[in-house]
Amino acid sequence: MVTATTTEPRTYGGWRRSRSLGIGRLDSRQTVILMTAVLVPLLAAAFGAVRLAFVLAGVALPVLGLALVQRGGVLLMDLALARARWQWAAWRGETSYRGGVFAELPRAWDLPGVLAPTTLLDVEEPGRGRVGVVWNQRTGWMSVTLLLSPAGALLADRATVERQVAAWGDLLASLADDETVRAAAVTIELVPESGTQLADHVAGRLDPDAPELARRVLGELVAAAPRGAARVNARLTLTVDPAAGGARPRSVPEAAAEALRSLAGLSVTAAGADVLRRASATDLVRMVRCAFDPDAAMAGVSEFDALTWGEAGPVAAEDLWDHYRHDGAYSISWALLEAPRQRVCHDVLLPLLSPGRFPRRVTILYRTLSRDEAGAVLEREVNAAAAREEYRRRTRRDPTARERADAERAARAAAEEAHGAGLVQFSLFVTTTVTRWEDLADARREVEQAAGRSRLKLRIARGGQSAAFAVGLPCGIYPPAV
């Protein structure tokens, strides 16, 4: 007799937010502010300046409130600083952009905001045709994009899915061996389509003479498929610093060639995605133009051939505090605040990547650390966790469950790195775009509900909407380097 056995699905986790050395739950910056706010008034009183001590104490209280109190997972100090910087930029007119016929002459930049230093190179790659390379003239970095066709995992067996996840981990780990790679971004764009698209597609191709079993299976698949549908566009953008390699290119063509060589070593197919082709200059212009003007997606591909990089951007754009207005469309962008605390299955992001009523763009941004840097970072994290544990012991305070779990994850990550595992820093950005102002609140609610079902905690990129919007474009924008 054969007995069927079932195994639990494999789960994934172990990620944690990087924490610097500090008192208790405070980081190093908060600790310095706390010590300064407490010690300065005490020192003033010790030297006899009692009146000055009271004045300094009155100033220290609101400073401590800004440095210690959080709102929506963000320190009030950071929110106030972001608001001040955005307001100063708004007063100087730096949050408004006018391009095309409205641009002042001579034009220094073609695109708004953080995209301003970028320009597009149309490169001929031997044996592959024309390839588009985005060159950031400020940093010298080059970005190239692969257009992908993700196979999906809904109909794949568990073993196949686990192999694909492992292959993706190996791909990320391999980037650490290329010292020129600065960041990698995977972007999924969802554009709503008719919910009857799959049924119409199957009905138009079903052979009347097909076996009854085949017809019944197809009917059950169509009935079980989600009613919502979307056009899915996937891409992988690799950003490299050609000057960081041993070759040291002396010209822009040599730097572009170095970027293309880094792209050649990626094994994406094993991770469950087929590579359609390398994005051409026309592909990049079309993706950027359609992001700023969704109505442009109705135009034919050939109509983008004559557009320049400057014409891919908006005619007018306004970077507002909590949303972005561009060419008659409205967008809201979010940044990842906290990843799932628990271990999750491979399909944890499925709710966020499922079709909705409004267009959505989801970008996962990766930074791979070299072997030496990864070891130093993890050693620093373990030491910081040990210092916090020593502080709790001396103050006779029992650690919380979260503190114990964080220390365990830090130690486990260091042990895994010591045995050859790679270390990746990642973040996630989400953008939704609507063409009617009345739909913006509903689109925002849809994204936040989907993120909650995916166990993600997002925050609106207040004061940085245009920058967060640009991260999802195939232009190699890496926020820490902006």
From TrEMBL:
InterPro entries: SCO6880-like
Keywords tagged on the record: Membrane, Transmembrane, Transmembrane helix
Membrane-crossing segments per the record: 32-54, 60-82
UniProt name for this protein: Integral membrane protein
Originating species: Carbonactinospora thermoautotrophica
